[in-house]
Amino acid sequence: MDRPQKMPKVAKVKNKAPAEVQITAEQLLREAKERDLEILPPPPKQKISDPAELADYQQRKRKTFEDNLRKNRMVVSHWIKYAQWEEQQQEIQRARSIWERALDNEHRNVTLWLKYAEMEMKNKQVNHARNLWDRAVTIMPRVNQFWYKYTYMEEMLENVAGARQVFERWMEWQPEEQAWQTYVNFELRYKETDRAREIYERFVYVHPDVKNWIKFARFEETHGFIHGARRVFERAVEFFGDDYIEERLFIAFARFEEGQKEHDRARIIYKYALDHLPKDRTPDLFKAYTIHEKKYGDRAGIEDVIVSKRKHQYEQEVAANPTNYDAWFDYLRLIEAEGDKELIRETYERAIANVPPANEKNYWRRYIYMWINYALYEELEAEDLERTRQIYKTCLELIPHKQFTFSKLWLLYAQFELRCKQLQVARKTLGMAIGMCPRDKLFRGYIDLEIQLREFERCRLLYEKFLEFGPENCVTWMKFAELENLLGDTERARAIFELAVQQPRLDMPELLWKAYIDFEVALGETELARQLYERLLERTQHVKVWISFAKFEMSISHGQGQDDSQGDDDLNARLARRIYERANEMMRQLNDKESRVLLLEAWRDFERDVNDATSLQKVLDKMPRRIKRRQKIVSEDGVEEGWEEIFDYIFPEDEMARPNLKLLAAAKMWKKQKDTEVENPTEPQIETTSPGPPAPLETDDN
Description:
The protein is mainly alpha-helical. It has helices spanning about 25-35, 50-70, 75-90, 90-105, 110-120, 125-140, 145-155, 160-170, 175-190, 195-205, 210-220, 225-245, 245-260, 265-275, 285-295, 300-320, 325-340, 340-350, 360-380, 385-400, 405-420, 425-435, 440-450, 455-470, 475-485, 490-500, 510-520, 525-540, 545-555, 565-590, 595-610, 615-620, 650-655, 660-675; strands spanning about 625-635, 640-650.
């Protein structure tokens, strides 16, 4: 029977508080580093005293290297260490044998070739090194390091012809740009300028880059061949053509000419570049051109540069957003200042080709002005009338007249035909405009044209058509009546006014009635004017009509001489006072307190002008008092939102009609004095209780 396994006893920790000295992992690592626990002592140095010991040592060492190579032949470091050890033992043949074995094992390893060649050169085995470099560049001709080392070795051996031959072999492979530059520098070190020039000739065609052509030109300039440098730049421009040219080439070419004091040549180069390069590829060119002109140009040249730069900016703007008509306007204004007729027409055609995307008038407003400017330019500057006529016709055909039109354009076209003495064409154009898309401005322009031509019968017909189109337009009625009045036909003018005031709907009836009344007053028909006022008051009870009626009564003259002037003033005052009394009674019945206050103020001013103290006092007795009271604010939903303070007017006439109002007001005031904390907000609070006549409107009892 198996005994039950006993669990080990767990030691109880009595003190669980942290130790006073804490030891961290970082501290343990630091102590191990300081004590150098993992560093093994170096092996003891062995001193070899005789050839036998040396041979034994070499045998053991070679056996170790060979064992390592048998284990892993692909580790290059084993081969390198083995060969370098043999070199240290002055066993060059053995070292060479090891290098060859290594190359047989991995002939594409660059490091092996470099170490092998360094060993041969270090031991002054020149022919071996030369043969080795030949083998290396034959196997791997794209490794530039071999060629650099090979040419450097030949140059150090002062074998210039051999080095040149190696360079030529290298150049047949068309290496990178630095290799060509190295070859050029090699020839320049031995003053072979012609050979260097030939190398550059081949170089710029193998690597056709702008910077290489610039290097070639600077090489010619540095060695004093100015014409050669200029010829190189010209060949570069011809070589790249207009499709692949860059602004760097032109900038370098212009700066070269600037350095030779050929400022006219530099200016021509800049202009040629700006004309042949796309605008988005010439920002630095513009800057260089501007700096050149500021240094060496005159005022005209500087302005020309600035204009060219602004042209470039506008071209960018209109290319980014063809419907940016503000940019087109600025661009066209700049082009027109130059005076090139063909360029101006071409730019206008480009601008008007950008039709607004939507048929909404807001989008077309700026666009139409480009057509107008185009037509005005052709008429005034180019003086091509037939082209101007064609522009107007094309624009009018382009506009969707069923949705909207531009009256200004129709009128401009008609005025143009009129200047060309084509009256019938102008009339036909305006008639077609009114038939297709009648507008107030078209009617007025057509009428003004006929008035200038003194064709009044046509004006009458046009006004009749105008009123058929818009019978609610009061200005049209007034202009029609004014025309008839100027022609001396007052009865016809009066009939037009009568028809106008009888229209069921008018946009500004107050102006029409005023014009009708002024018309009768100007003719001296005061009785008819008075009747018009009475008819107007039947339609509206506006306070301004009453005040105007009173002023009219005050201004008319009844007598025939100077003796009756005093009697006329008294009669006019009585008539005007009667009007004010009627108006006051009407405002009282309508309970329009604001209008009533305005009326009383005008009446008061009238009595002051008349200088009648009795009548003035009566008016002052009618002036209201202004009080402040509170009322509830009720929203549209019928919800109470609080209280607000408003100003109200109490008229003495209304108080006399309600005698209990004064008693009630006095009771309210007494209660307020007795109990200042309690206030009834629903009733008005009279703020002054002083006896005497009521205060005028201007005074505030607060």
